[in-house]
User: Fold this.
Amino acid sequence: MKSDYLPYLQDIAFQRYVAGLALPRFKFRSFLMLADKSATASVDGLNQRFRVRRQGRSVGIELAPGTAEALGQPILTAVSVDSQVQEILTGNVSLAGVPTPFGKAAEELADAYCADRRWPPAPGTACGTCEFKAPKPAEAGELQSGFHECWKSAFGWTDASFDNGTVLDLWNCRKKAALIERGALTPRAVMMEDLGFDGEEPNLKGMSQKHRQWYQCSRDWPGGGEFFFDAGGMEREMRTWRYPLHFIDFETCTVAIPFSRGQRPYETVAFQFSHHVMQENGRVEHRSQFLEATPGVDPCVPFLKALRAALGGDDGTVFRWATHENTVLNHLRRQLMLHPAPPLDRDELVAFVESITHRDADDSKAKIHGTRDMVDLCKLAERYFFHPDTKGSSSLKKVLPALMRCSETLRAIYGLRMYGSTDMPSLNLTEPVAWWQKVDGQVQDPYGLLPPVFSDFTKDEVDAVEVGFPAELQEGGAAMAAYGRLQFEEIDPRERESIERALLRYCELDTLAMVMAVQAWKAWVA
Assistant:
């Protein structure tokens, strides 16, 4: 049984167990009802036939009037899981780290629940994704953090014990279970041999995974100082760039119910992009953007056409952060090639996508690279820049705050209210803003400076619309949720406008953050 399906199978097994106790003379069958990714929608507009209705905190789904035939061919399938459920029911589950028969485990957990009795913790690697984990131990009057409670109970820690992080913070490390088992609970307790690292310095290719992990644990890197930057390696990369530089970021989602006939469940939908440009003289502008969130409108082809127009006109280097944009464009390319009613310029759009991406060759393990294949800034950060505040990560959301704290160039540029002026134009800001700000002596994360989604609403209006929606839009998951709300709910026009403005501001900051990273690195290379 695949680990990602196991929780669902255990859920069904528990239902089967309870039903068997309540109705012992009955026989039961167990199924997973799944969206069939091999099925295609046979009608247009299928996803708009299911609308979300909210009334306070109550949420329901309303089916549009019509016949069963209007829904077309089924895209759901019931998969029998009787054998898997039986295997779970007759096997053991881990209870406080002890293998326990399923029925006994259910009874013991039920007794503990009824008695409101705390269950003894069994810390492990799963703690890294604990859903009850706050950023820090709770202070008086704050909601408790289950993660911190468990570790304090299991290991006798105090709040101060968490100050230097835990071994769970180690970036991309698969040895956390062994480290916890031997009692190496913090990064400083990890030894070189634990990571298989021999202490060598980075080579011409930059830092390896083991370098980043060891620097995170030891806080010791070549040259010392606040952070490590391989200026030589970054300069070699920069010499290959062509101006003007283009920075792009996408917002996407995977909708369970397709927009159009011929599409499959959970196909990628690209609904938004932002695009910044940097000239050789350093001038930066937010040149273009795209957002299509009209209910029922498949945005993918308009998205590609707008992106082609945005990047046309020169052969400047195009940048992305991580693999997402390359993956999305390749997916859209496949959609175009299989489209039952393709646009007239399909061949031109396919050629555009192929020019700025790379993909696997059909008949080998080789890669096919476009003539203008995008440069991955995340990979450059991973190889050439390490700051302990990132906890080893090269995620843009980790790298940007670290750069804002350590780059004098970013302080000089963004400490002034310049961004959004004629010197550094923005498509969404009506007044210039300073992205470098200090509060109580701490340099702020620019994403935390984004205005609330409903900044022009009264408190009562905010309370009414924020049910099921975040007050701030500062990460990709919230952007997907926002798009889903715009697609599938009946929303007041003023609320819709506020959400769309927030999406545009958020995506703009994503590409500006990429610009900021390049500006900081260029200053250190010079």
The mean pLDDT is 91. The chain has five domains: 6-114, 125-162, 167-225, 238-281+288-376, 377-525.
